[in-house]
Amino acid sequence: MANIKSQIKRIGQNERRRERNKAVRSELKTRVKNAVTSQDEAAIRLALKRIDKAASQGVIHKNQAARRKSRLMHQLARVQD
Length: 81
Description:
Shape: elongated
CATH architecture: Up-down Bundle
Largest sheet: none
CATH topology: Methane Monooxygenase Hydroxylase, Chain G, domain 1
CATH class: Mainly Alpha
Distance between the termini: 56 Å
Oligomer: single chain
Strand content: under 5%
Structural class: mainly alpha
Helix content: over 70%
């Protein structure tokens, strides 16, 4: 455990961020799964919105967000055929 006050604060900040990021990633997986299974337009829009929001918050990289959106749309196109 750190003895320096600023480092103790930094450890707490990192832990809170880790918990938030974990929750956001979990929600992303749920939204994408719901979009694929239901194929509802509202669910698809919500999944894409959550992916963009996670990228803007810095939870995932912008290129990863683009890749996830592309794969989601490709998967939905394959299911609709």
